[in-house]
Design goal:
By secondary structure, the protein is an alpha+beta fold. The protein has helices at residues 2-27, 33-46, 110-120, 201-216, 242-247, 286-299, 387-390, and strands at 53-57, 64-77, 80-87, 132-135, 138-142, 149-151, 155-156, 163-166, 171-175, 179-182, 186-190, 223-227, 231-233, 251-256, 259-263, 307-331, 352-364, 367-376. Helix content is 22%, strand content 31%. Strands 1, 2, 3, 5, 8, 10, 11, 12, 14, 15, 16, 17 and 18 form a 13-stranded mixed beta sheet that branches. The termini are far apart. InterPro entries: TUNICAMYCIN_INDUCED_1 (IPR053283).
Length: 411
């Protein structure tokens, strides 16, 4: 009898131990390296030192993932380089299982491990820029040359394309690009002239002057780099007539291995409607007008003076962003400047203060680079006080009796 009781006790002990191990594993999963590196960067950025603080949060179950377009410009004025970063609003935040958020469990093996690998093989779709149109004269350097596709309007086997020259009048539609950037610094003439209301006329006028200067030079003035598996296609014709569609065809000329030139007889109408070289951008574009106002605020009086403005860097890239919250708890010490005015004397004074933050990070390879860290207000908890505390610990026998006025409808 005693042996049966001992055996049952051991079985229950083993079951309890296994359940406790499972629950501990689920509640405290190992943090991925991307999150641990992000945490370390934020601690350094906030200037937290010593053992008087504790940082918590960074729960991957609450992490939101979104895609957006980031613009980065470096403008040189009077031998001073001014960096600018602009970010479009994220249209939609989702819960996505990113590869950098996954941790490899050494206990996974056999059939269970194969199931995990099959589930992880479904990688999320990387963001790309929306299709845009480029017009010559200019040159394009293709970083992912092996994944380049050329269609005029049908697919053309031009080999591995590393460089494409767009002659004057040639227009292509770029699809699938991850980023487009300026390869060489570009000198922009001043002053900026405003001649038309309702459009970003200063930038459009500047673009027309640059296009005219490019036509008069032997080599293309503008050089761009395109990153990502990309396709260059002829722009679709708005008309279905055969003459119109034939005018849209581009002529291919092979200049060297990996180098081709695209030309066309179509001329781009000059005016204040589209911006060269990105002719798919209208002059009334909100981002274009916003950048014009930013440029005027930086230049000030120099915008109306003769001179030059150097564009050192210009890049537009599709980025993946992560948004998550965390909490910092700091111990209160003398000299922290905490004011206890308005707090009753009977209430216990807190020994620490909690601050809630939200971090917006950009995914770069296997890292998350913090772009913005802001403090947020936590959910306010309603304060409840016992009735005897409100009455000053007065007993009911001492509470004054108040008789309400009688009503004419009382029987």
């Amino acid at each position: 009898m005693a042996s049966r009781i001992l055996t049952g006790f051991l079985i229950l002990f083993m079951i309890g131990s296994s359940n406790s191990l499972i629950s501990t594993k689920d509640l405290n999963p190992p943090a991925p390296k991307a999150i641990s590196d992000l945490k370390e960067t934020i601690v350094k950025g906030l200037g937290l030192q010593g053992d008087d603080f504790k940082i918590s949060g960074f729960d991957l179950r609450d992490a939101l993932v979104g895609h957006s377009v980031a613009y980065e410009f470096h403008v040189e004025i009077d031998n001073k380089v001014l960096p600018f970063k602009l970010l479009e609003d994220v249209n939609r935040w989702e819960y996505v299982d990113l590869p950098i958020f996954r941790t490899k469990d050494p206990s996974e093996s056999g059939e269970e491990n194969s199931l995990v690998e099959n589930r992880r093989s479904e990688e999320p779709v990387l963001p790309v820029l929306a299709p845009f149109q480029l017009a010559g004269p200019m040159e394009l350097w293709i970083q992912d040359a092996n994944d380049m596709r050329l269609s005029l309007p049908h697919d053309v086997d031009a080999g591995v394309l590393k460089k494409v020259i767009l002659a004057d009048g040639a227009v292509v539609t770029v699809k699938g690009a991850k980023s487009v950037s300026l390869r060489q610094p570009l000198d922009l003439p001043l002053p900026l002239n405003r001649t038309h209301n309702g459009f970003a006329s200063s930038l459009l006028s500047l673009a027309n002057r640059l296009r005219h200067a490019s036509r008069t030079q032997m080599a293309p003035l503008l050089s761009l780099r395109i990153v990502g598996p990309t396709s260059l296609t002829s722009p679709s014709s708005p008309s279905s007539s055969s003459s119109s569609s034939s005018d849209k065809k581009l002529k291919l000329k092979r200049l060297a291995p990996g180098l081709v030139e695209l030309s066309s007889l179509v001329e781009i109408e000059e005016g204040f409607t589209t911006m060269w070289p990105m002719v798919s951008i209208n002059g009334s574009n909100a981002n274009l007008r916003g950048f014009e106002r930013l440029l005027y605020s930086v230049l000030g009086a120099k915008a109306k003076e003769e001179g030059w403005l150097k564009l050192v860097k210009a890049e537009a890239s599709a980025q993946t962003f992560v948004k998550m919250g965390f909490e910092v708890e700091k111990k209160l010490k003398e000299g922290d400047g905490v004011v206890w005015e308005g707090i009753p004397a009977w209430r216990t004074k807190p020994k620490s203060v909690k601050m809630h933050f939200e971090v917006l990070g950009k995914v770069e390879g296997d890292k998350v680079v913090p772009e913005r860290v802001v403090q947020v207000d936590p959910i306010i908890v309603e304060d409840s006080v016992a009735p005897n505390v409100l009455m000053g610990n007065m007993t009911m026998s001492r509470t004054p009796i108040v008789h309400a006025p009688s009503s004419f409808f009382t029987l």
